């Protein structure tokens, strides 16, 4: 039996809390196997729970430590790690919470976890230098609207029917006052790593829709016309300036 097969059987036994998958592969008495399996299982669950806790601190704070441990154990059982790199473990938490009956009384929890995962992957994303707004100066004015922009690989666009950015910010403080939170307020934004800092940057609806189109490789003119309506709260120059200032773009291209 290969080492990989042995590891797979051990993992299966740990997750199922059943010695059968591993019993025939280890020359030990059944009772000793059970004892060792219990130790492995405890350490395995604790390690993964600690990993999830590091990724989802606001989720834990919102539901409490005991419930978060229960949530983590349930998640681990349904979604065991398939790779040894724990930095990429936990990516299905948002969908899991959405379908987890015990979380239905905290309807915004899934989107909070989505925000926290975006912050996690932003932190570990590859290093790519952003371009400054000065890059636009090299483009003839008549061609500016034909430019396509490439968004930084660390960036994730977040759209929620709950005020997830506000809730996240309040949970960075020791004593938070939630009395002024309108739980029915939609929020939009981008999570991105700027230098060595991961930041949440809020957008209005039109900026979000515009940037979504830009992320799909649409040019500035098309994206702007697509979202423009009379009295639209969208100022292209101001929005571009703000987005460049947080390092949103890594490349621009003029289609010929």
Could you explain the architecture of this structure?
With about 260 residues, this protein is α+β, with helices and mostly antiparallel strands. It is about 50% helix and about 10% strand. It is built from 11 helices and 5 strands, in the order H-H-H-H-H-H-H-E-E-H-E-E-H-H-H-E. The longest helix has 26 residues, at about 30-55. The termini are far apart. The model has no long low-confidence stretch (mean pLDDT about 85).
Q: What would you report as the Rg, rounded to the nearest angstrom?
A: 23 Å
End-to-end Cα distance = 59 Å
At the first level of CATH, what is the class of the largest domain? Alpha Beta
CATH hierarchy: architecture of the largest domain: Alpha-Beta Complex
Q: What is the gist of this entry?
A:
48% of the residues lie in helices and 12% in strands.
Output the keywords:
single chain; 256 residues; alpha+beta; Outer Surface Protein A, domain 3; 2 domains; three-stranded antiparallel sheet
List the helices and strands and how they pair.
Elements: H1 3-16, H2 20-23, H3 30-55, H4 57-63, H5 65-78, H6 93-98, H7 109-124, E1 147-151, E2 156-160, H8 164-170, E3 187-194, E4 197-203, H9 205-215, H10 220-227, H11 236-245, E5 249-254
Antiparallel strand pairs: 1-5, 2-3, 3-4
């Amino acid at each position: 039996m290969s080492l990989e097969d042995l590891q797979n059987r051990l993992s299966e036994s740990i997750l199922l809390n059943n010695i059968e998958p591993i019993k025939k592969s280890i020359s030990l008495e059944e009772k000793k196997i059970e004892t060792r399996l219990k130790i492995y299982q405890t350490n395995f669950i604790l390690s993964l729970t600690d990993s999830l806790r590091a990724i989802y601190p606001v989720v834990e704070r919102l539901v409490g430590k005991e419930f978060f441990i229960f949530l983590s154990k349930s998640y681990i059982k349904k979604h065991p790690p398939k790779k040894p790199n724990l930095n990429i473990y936990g990516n299905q938490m948002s969908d899991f919470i959405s379908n987890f009956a015990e979380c239905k009384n905290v309807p915004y929890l899934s989107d909070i976890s989505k925000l926290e995962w975006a912050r996690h992957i932003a932190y570990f994303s590859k290093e790519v230098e952003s371009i400054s707004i000065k890059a636009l100066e090299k483009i003839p004015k008549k061609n500016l609207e034909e430019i396509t922009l490439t968004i930084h690989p660390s960036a994730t666009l977040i759209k929620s029917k709950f005020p997830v950015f506000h809730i996240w910010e309040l949970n960075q403080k020791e004593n938070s006052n939630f009395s002024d939170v309108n739980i029915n307020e939609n929020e939009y934004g981008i999570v991105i790593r700027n230098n060595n800092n991961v930041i949440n940057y809020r957008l209005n609806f039109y900026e979000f829709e515009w940037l979504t189109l830009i992320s799909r490789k649409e040019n500035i003119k098309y994206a702007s016309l697509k979202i423009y309506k009379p009295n639209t709260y969208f100022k292209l120059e101001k929005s571009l300036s703000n987005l460049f200032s947080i390092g949103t773009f890594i490349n621009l291209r003029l289609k010929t």
